[in-house]
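Holo model, hypoxanthine. Inputs:
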Amino acid sequence: MLGIIGGSGMAVLDELAERRRQVVRTPYGDPSCPFLFGRLDGQEVVFLSRHGFGHTITPHQINYRANLWALDEIGVKSLVSVATVGGIRADLEPGSLLLPDQIIDYTHGRAATFYEGPDQPVIHIDFTEPYDAGLRARVLAAAAAVGETLFDGGTYGCTQGPRLETAAEIRRLERDGCDVVGMTAMPEASLARELGIPYVTLAVIANDAAGRGESARRISLEAIGGVLDGAMRRVRTVLRALR
Ligand code: HPA
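Output:
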């Protein structure tokens, strides 16, 4: 089954046919909200709204372990995470879609592993390539099939939030090699790897990062809503074409 995690601008997936909701509990507590099951163009899909249906859970307070544990329990075999980001690289204008191939983690204090606690062995997962190559290829093929431009590759810098970054922080992220900046890729990606679930992030550039382009002086939160409306429609088109 395909799992889809929706982020800001994608709290529901109205396209799902034969929808039903299900609450799932886990040893790590409650996921962000009930799961939505249904069919997307004939394909079995389960959808989770990362910030809750009412967008009430801030990035550092999301129970990533409960979300991922539940998705695994449900039987998700491929997981596409839709996430809004700020564009650092100059060609990544608001509204662009990007499929990152690398991550740098700047978060702190998030519960980031299933391998801790009494009687748990110390286990180090390989995370050289944080995103699944096969699933990346499928998402790229889906975008090509519907004629959507999807930038192939890039480094996602994951900050703690919920505040946006300073201009100097963005300059530092750029020196580090980050192309986009967001707040939710980690520990989502590494928890998926711990569970062996193939995982990719479909990143939606919502705004120029702090100090860049239209955000030279400040980031306009009012402008982001309009950008996301259009961009999420295109994301849905890509998801429907995923095979
Ligand atoms: N920074 C961090 N996260 C984000 C941004 C940003 O500029 N835009 C959307 N999510």
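The chain has one domain: 2-241. Residues 2-241 form a domain with the Rossmann fold fold (CATH 3.40.50.1580).
Archived with the compound record.
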